[in-house]
Each structure stands twice: as structure tokens, then as C-alpha cells.
Hints:
This protein is an alpha+beta fold. It has helices at residues 2-11, 17-29, 31-48, 55-69, 87-104, 265-276, 301-312; strands at 115-120, 126-129, 135-138, 142-147, 156-166, 175-179, 182-186, 190-195, 201-208, 211-215, 218-225, 229-234, 239-244, 257-264, 279-282, 291-297, 314-320, 326-332.
Amino acid sequence: MKIEEDIINIVSGNKTVHEKQKLMKKIIEDDSDNKLYKKLKFSWALIASTRQMSDKYIEQSYDQFKKEKFQRPSKTTFIKIKHLLPYAAVLAIGLMVSWIVFYKNANTKLTNPQYTSVVADHGQISKVVLPDSTIIWLNSGSTLKYNSNYSVDNRNLDLTGQAYLDVKTNINLPLIVSCKDINIRVLGTQFDVCSYPNDDQVSVKLDEGSIELFHAKNTSKKTRLKPGDLAVYNLTNNEIGISNNQKPYYSEWRNGMLTFVNTEMKYVIKELERKFDIEVIVMDSNILNSKLNGRFKNTSLEQIAAFIELACQIDATIIKENEINTKLILKAYN
């Protein structure tokens, strides 16, 4: 029972990175545990990418799932596997029931709202449809959070990471995205916002419509963007710079594309770490001065590493410690 619970907690994101790495070593050594992990991970990703519900209902579904399918039979009991539903189907049924309950309460204002978090793990891109039909793409390593009163009395979103939003118009209920010190107010539009935890800036690229940027602690000072504008908010000096960026590749990440246009290596490294869920180790600091140009789709890490070697004249070595941990070592040629 313990290993099944551990697998569920890994899939649902309730384990730290260290705990996950430790447990995964045990899981991959056992064929049955490894198969169960893959089935549950697939089911969770499938459901989470198409339906959203409160954490409360998700936990209830998992509790029910554990009781029904992970209860070990006694020695005198024989259970035929063919009589059991596949794990994916069980998960789908449990989560669909929870979603129905959530949907029934969607138009009822709750006094103690629950919060829903949508996560795109490293190496993944998630597409989410919110209760108001707003569509959001989440880039790797991103988290989106909203409460159960969303589209009832608010359309407030908390974002960590990068997202592309196609916002459903509602002039009576503006959508507000909060990321670090910046809030973005929209009625109905399409835009890209990037705000990863370790970045020293927040960037917002507007494709259609109109949006307002304002500081979370100073709502009087607002900056309005027009289509094609790229706003970069510097977290160090609290200044906003605006330029016109009509380049279509800016949000190509939604289609799994990695695009670098004269991009500094420190930003290339961050993209690779998120895209491939790896650790990049830089042996020589002058490597960070290199810049990369290239567009990659469905390209392996090995191919990109070979391209970096040719384009930047540096050594790029991939080290796979196990099925979980991969490192990319960058060092200058001797």
C-alpha cells in the first residue's frame, strides 16, 4: 500500500524533488510499479489538461481511488485482473465525478472558496480551459492558480512562469493576472506573459486587443499596451520599457518550438532546463557571453547540444546519471 500511495503523491505533485528522485529509483526497478506509475501519470496529465477542479475534490477522488483499487486482497481472496477497470479509466471516472460536482457549484458564490492550481511540469506544455471559456497555454515549469469563485465575482489569476492567454471577453468582469509585483488587467484579448521565479524581469507581449499594467502596490500608475507591444518590467529598478515586437515566433513555444534569436546563453540555459527537465552546469563563466540563433521543434537534447557546439564553439557534453537525472556540461574548448 505504501508504494501505491507514494506513486499517487508523485503523480499529483505532493512530493518534493528530493523525495521524488529517491522514490523513482525504487519504482523504476520494479516492473509492476513502473507500469503503474506510467499509467497514473498519463491519466493525470490527460484529465488535468482538459478539466479543472478544486484541490479538495481532487483529493477526495484520489482517496476513493485508493480505497477501491489499492486495497490488497487477503490470502483467501482471488481477484481476476480482467474484472478490474484499467487504471486510466478508474481515474477518469473518479475525476469526472468530481468535476461534475465542481461544475454544479460553478455559478454559486462560495463564502470559503477553494483554490485550484494547474501545473505544467518541466518538459511539458499544458492547455487549460477555464470556467469562463478563457483558454490558457502554460509553458514548462509554470503554475496557474485561481479560486472557486472565478467567473462568479472575479476573474483573478496568479501566475508563476509563462503563459499565453486567449481571454474571453467580459466587460463587467475584467480578468486580472498577478505575477510578482505586476498586475495585468484585461477585458478580452490575446497576450503572452513570462514571469519565472528566478527571472529579474516580467515580460508581457500583446497580440490583440488592449491591456493595462499596474504595480500591485501602486494602482494609480498604469501602462496601456497596444497590439505588437512588448513590455518588460525590471524588478530591480521598478521601471517598464516598451518596444514594438511584431515577430511571430515570440509565442511559438505553444507548439513545442524552441526559438532563439541572438539570445544570451544564460536565457538559453533556462529554456533548456525547463524544456528537458535537466540541469545545465557551466564550467567557464565566459560561456554566458555567447549568443545563440536557432529554431528547434521535436529536436532532441543531443541534437541541440551538437548545434550549440558548432554555433558557439563550446563543448557541450550530456551526462545521464540515471533515467531521472540528466546534466548538460558546458565548457570552453581547451
